[in-house]
Amino acid sequence: MKLATFRRGEAPARVGRVDADGCLRPLYLPGGRPADDLLALIDDPALLAAAREGEETLAMDEVALLAPIPRPRRNLFCVGKNYRAHAREFGRSGYDSGPAGDDDLPAHPIVFTKTPQTVVGHGARVWDAAGVSAALDYEAELAVIVGRGGRGIRRTEAMAHVWGYTILNDVTARDWQQRHRQWDLGKSFDTFAPMGPVAVTADELDGGDLRVRCWINGELRQDARTRDLIFDIPTLIETLSAGITLLPGDIIATGTPAGVGAGFRPPRFLARGDEMAIEIEGIGRLVNRIGD
Question: Cα-flanking dihedrals φ and ψ of residue 60, to 5°?
Fold first, then answer.
């Protein structure tokens, strides 16, 4: 099932199912109340199962698509250097927090977080950070949405805890990442986590083998498959949950492939007006521009 969180005009946010024709069918809960919070439906699978479509059908160009979970309940979990080619390009870039020129692959998942206010939806402008950063970069990623929470989840059981998937753009201020020798600050500027355009339930996709692509102003920069992850989804869930209780609705960004701006010689960072388009098969296309 594909689900979207959207707003029509000045009306409150709603949740709807995206049908095979790409149209929205708003969902209603038992008693006729409009579904307005995907996180609540993830928290309570019985509530999602009981939701029914209304008679109205909306075209995508009639609505503004918000992030599937517009305001996560806590920080997003993110994984760094999780594709071999990207780990190597980033190690050579000079922006890594490790030794300059480091070409080693990580022995264990590298985890950092992005704050909830980084999240924006499809079509939203990403802050250009004028006067704050001069090295904005893009990172196309598959994001996992946790369904059933827990601690100490074994990798053999991990996929039973996955509710679904969406796309996340891990926008990064590389100069802040380099200067502060850690990743949270440069990853957590306002609007630095475009997400969407929809969320897809796990029964419809094999998250272990999806094509991930990113275009900047129409130029293909990133192109890989999630089967190339160094640490796969079950390993990430096992690692995160070893000491942290995962909650329904938690978001895990699984890492980005090679082709980021910092990996070019010279770097090709983002500028005001640039368009970032990320496509993951089975989910859709997330498009955002750099602006105010």
Answer: -60, -30
Report the residue count for the chain. Answer: 292
Are the CB atoms for 66 and 60 separated by under 8 Å?
no
pLDDT at 100 (0 to 100): 47
For 28-41, the pLDDT digits (tens) are 999 999 999 999 99
Q: How far apart are CA 108 and CA 26, in angstroms?
A: 42
d(CA 140, CA 190): 18
> pTM to 2 decimals?
0.96
Within 10 Å of residue 181's Cβ, how many Cβ atoms? 9
pLDDT, average across residues 251-265: 96
Please name which of 50, 47, 46, 53 lies closest in space to residue 16, comparing C-alpha atoms. 53
Per-residue model confidence as pLDDT tens digits over 145-163: 999 999 999 999 999 999 9
Question: Where along the chain do its domains lie?
Answer: 2-64, 76-291
How far apart CA 267 and CA 251 sit, in angstroms, is: 29
Higher pLDDT, 277 or 20: 277
- CATH no. of 76-291: 3.90.850.10
